[in-house]
């Protein structure tokens, strides 16, 4: 089952540290969920949490 970021964002703690990884190995770290630009990542799939 695939979950998109826009579907799970509301369930994440607002102060959770997140790293968004891309296929080319590049990643972006965020200190808070509110720092993540929702429009850029809303259609991407979540492959792991934790």
Sequence-ordered SSE layout with sheet pairings:
Blueprint: E1 3-4, H1 5-8, E2 18-21, E3 27-30, H2 38-41, E4 45-46
Antiparallel strand pairs: 1-4, 2-3
Which segments are poorly predicted (pLDDT under 50) over 5 or more consecutive residues?
Answer: none
User: Major sheet: order of its strands?
Assistant: 1-4
SSE series: EHEEHE
Overall geometry: globular
Number of helices: 2
Q: Could you say which structural class the secondary elements and strand pairing correspond to? A: alpha+beta
How large is the radius of gyration?
A: 10 Å
Largest sheet: 2 strands, antiparallel
- Cα end-to-end separation: 18 Å
Write down how many β-strands occur, each being a DSSP E stretch of 2 or more residues. 4
- Strand-residue proportion: 15-25%
- Give the overall pLDDT as a whole number: 82
Structure characterization notes:
By secondary structure, this protein is of the alpha+beta class. Helices cover 16% and strands 24% of the residues. It has two helices and four strands, in the order E-H-E-E-H-E. A two-stranded antiparallel sheet has the order 1-4. It has a two-stranded antiparallel sheet with strand order 2-3. The model has no long low-confidence stretch (mean pLDDT 82).
Task: Produce a short descriptive summary.
This protein has 50 residues and is an alpha+beta fold. 16% of the residues lie in helices and 24% in strands. The chain has two helices and four strands.
List keywords for this structure.
two-stranded antiparallel ribbon
């Amino acid at each position: 089952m695939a979950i998109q970021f826009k579907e799970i964002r509301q369930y994440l703690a607002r102060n959770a540290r997140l790293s968004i990884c891309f296929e080319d190995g590049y990643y972006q770290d965020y200190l808070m969920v509110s720092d993540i630009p929702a429009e850029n990542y809303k259609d991407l799939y979540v492959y792991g949490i934790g």
